[in-house]
Amino acid sequence: MNISDSEGAGGNRPSAPLLSAVRADVLSVLGLAALPMLAGAFLPWVLLRPNRLAPGDYLRLPPAWAVLMVVLALLPLLAARLLPRLTWLAAGLAVVAVFWVLGLQTRSALLGQAEFARASAAAGLWLSGLGALIAAYGAGLLLPGRSRALAWAWVPAVLGLLLAGHLSGWSVLVEARNEGPRWVQELGQHLRLVGTALGLSTLIGVPLAVWAAGRERVAGAVLGLANAVQTLPSLALLGLLIAPLSALSTAFPALRAAGISGIGVAPALTAMTLYALLPILRNGVVALRGVPAGTVDAARGMGMTGRQIFWRVQVPLALPVWLTGIRQAAVLLVGVASVAALIGAGGLGTYIFKGLQSAAADLILLGAVPAALLAIGVDAALRGLEVWLGRRFGRVG
Amino acid sequence: MIELQGLEKRYGNSFAVRDLNLEFAEGELTALLGPSGCGKTTTLRMINRLIEPTGGRVLLRGQDTQTLKPETLRRGIGYVIQQIGLFPHLNVAQNVATVPDLLGRPARETERRVDELLDLVGLSPAEYRHKKPAELSGGQAQRVGVARALAADPPVLLMDEPFGALDPLARDKLQDAFRDIQRRLKKTVIMVTHDIDEALRLADRIALMNAGELAQFGTPDDLIHRPASDFVRQFLGEDAALRQLAGRRAGDFAHPSDPSGLPTVEADLNARSALGIMLREGSDALAVTEAGRPIGVLRWSDLQTSAAQIETVMRDKTT
Fold first, then answer.
1. Which of B246, B266, B58, B83 is nearest to B162 (CA)?
2. Do A317 and B50 touch (CB under 8 A)?
């Protein structure tokens, strides 16, 4: 009965067994999602501390809210059984409810407290949030094709809560408010670091890849080197650059005047550019060499000049794989830029390391969560560009 | 039309092609035949200068090709290769339009030309114009390859194993289709092949090469009946005459006569199969019909007229 229900729109397509297999899959995902939510409902949601470093008290949800969370935990599972088409709504509701309850509980906990008091999220919230997001993911699997976007319907709702100030009691946002313009500045610095390094590495990597791709031995060396440098941890690379760059700036006062020294933006950008160069170079060489020899031969045989072959045949055919390299580089850079704070280059990493030093989890989150979201966003945006270009240049399948 | 004079390509101390003198007549299909590594592809690619010769000259209508820019030369010569080499990111119409676009022909005119060519190679323009190469079968893709080579209406067509990658059935169909196209357009075609059947079936003349040198140049009959050397005889094989018959219609050999009492075959049957039927039926003549109507009689001696040596071959086979 459930199976025929989910099939409704498709009619009697031959893929019926496949659909039922997907549904069993989704049910187990939704079941998996319900477990942390159920546990979360009975664990403390809020940690109330007199200030951001002091130990504090764990507060549980009032029974009525706990019951609500239990209901919301089971709702997606129930919906998938009875009304599969509306599972996304149930899961989305659960996600929004988690944030809603978080806002209510943190604010009520802070009532009557001193200014420095902090209401942080505790295990109950994290588990419930995790479960609700898994449920939203599972619900997305039930939606066909384009309507899959409905599984993300909770995003604008949560953003609305955030912008309306509903979450203003949550310690992470209290820290954010205190940091205010400085946080925006660090975010900007983060984006600048990533953008500059990506731009530099693309500028250097693209012509280098074109040059290397046509040369058997150079291409081999480039790919070998790329793989070797990629195994170096980013932290080690940053450290390795301190010595040569400080030596340079000591030797050439002009460089020092330009702000180049062993620590700060210069070594960070150098390391990041080197790092991002590798996927761009590697994918460029692989993509250009992957253009079928017969296609290039035919282009030459029909009287295209070298330049025409490059722009009309090699570039369009290499572009999808190449863009994948640039996307990997961009995502990589968002991560490496977080480490760059260690050598004084700034960025969101500043908050992560500040938080780690003072054991202030809220500060860590203030750096880590936006950095993670940034990486996901950059990945999604460039992936979209790839798909669009792929369609434009007519990859079939 | 095209003349090779003392053409040579050497890599270090070894010759890929050595002192090659050949003349390709206008409107004829010449097969460059030979075992792999004999230099036939190198020769073909020296004609449109994808490979530069180390010696000798290529004359196109009396003009030394070295005096032209390679790109200009190539745009005036159609080129079809084995891996087809269609541009996977362009659709069928854009692929066919490549050379007219390079030559700066008006878009409207090219569009018309593309449809005309797709019709010519047996693909319905409405259905195939917007397909991507990945959506085509091997045979369809190769038809597009031929259409693309013909797009700018070049007088000369170079083909490098054009049907080599196809399965036997698709190859037969495409060879037939190409023979019809060639009969209509009368291009000067130079086709590299290692497939003796293909050469015997399609070529007006065969240039058989061995180890970079010309072993024999002549009509298929010349090569079969008057082989210039043991190599030619061995390469074509003892049953070359039979293979040649396989490329001909029984109807082409028939003469008007009284067909009564004879076993009947269709005119479209190939002559080799007709010979097989003669052997099976123990008859030295067959009645040939076309669309149900008798058109004449095919006799044993008719087959011999074009294949004088068939007797010896037959004796080998039957005793």
1. B83
2. no
Task: Determine, for residues A295 and B86 on separate chains, whether the beta-carbon distance falls below 8 Å.
Answer: yes
Spans of all domains in chain A: 2-170, 181-392
| Local confidence band at A199 (pLDDT 50, 70, 90 cut-offs) | very high
Interval A154-175: pLDDT, tens = 889 989 988 888 888 888 888 8
Facing A302 at nearest CB: one of B72, B82, B98: B98
- Do B148 and A396 lie within an 8 Å CB cutoff? no
Interface check for A116 against chain B (CB to CB < 8 A): the answer is: no
- What chain B holds in terms of domains, given with CATH numbers, is 2-237 (3.40.50.300), 244-318 (3.90.1280.20)
Residues A218, A224, A229, A232, Cα dihedral to 10°: -170
Q: Which of A301, A313, A317 sits opposite B50 (nearest CB)?
A: A301
Chain A partners of B50 at a C-beta cutoff of 8 Å? 297, 300-301
The tens digit of pLDDT for each residue in A12-68 reads 444 444 445 557 788 888 888 889 988 888 888 888 888 877 788 888 888 888 899
Which residue of A lies nearest to B145 if distances are taken between CA atoms? Answer: A298
| Residues in chain B whose Cβ is within 8 Å of chain A | 48, 50, 70-76, 79, 81-91, 98-99, 102, 132, 134-135, 145, 148, 158
Single-letter amino acid, residue B142: Q
Q: Does A313 touch chain B (CB under 8 A)?
A: yes
Q: Inter-chain contact B148–A292, Cβ cutoff 8 Å?
A: no
* A-B Cβ pairs (cutoff 8 Å, strict): 75
**pLDDT (average), residues B221-250:** 82
The token pair that represents A180 in the structure block: 């205010």
For the whole model, what pTM was predicted? 0.70
What local confidence, expressed as pLDDT, does residue B308 receive?
A: 41
Least confident of A57-71, A197-211, A214-228, B294-308: B294-308
Residue B8 has pLDDT above 70, yes or no: yes
Q: Choose among A127, A51, A42: nearest CA to A362.
A: A51
Q: How far, CA to CA in Å, does A212 sit from each of A215, A218, A238, A299, B72?
A: 5, 5, 27, 21, 29
Q: What is the mean pLDDT of residues A227-243?
A: 77
The length of chain B in residues reads 319
For residue B148, which phi and psi values (nearest 5 degrees)?
Answer: -65, -40
CATH superfamily for A181-392 is MetI-like (1.10.3720.10)
Task: Report d(CA A16, CA A7) in Å as an integer.
Answer: 7
Which of A302, A305, A317, A321 would you mutate first to test chain B, the one with the most B CBs within 10 A?
A: A302
- Chain A contact set for B87 (CB, 8 A): 295, 298-299, 312-313, 317
> DSSP string of A170-209?
BHHHHHHHHHTHHHHHHHHHHHHHHHHHHHHHHHHHHHHH
> Would you place residue A83 in the very low, low, confident or very high pLDDT band (cuts 50, 70, 90)?
confident
Distance from the Cα of A18 to chain B's closest Cα (Å) equals: 26
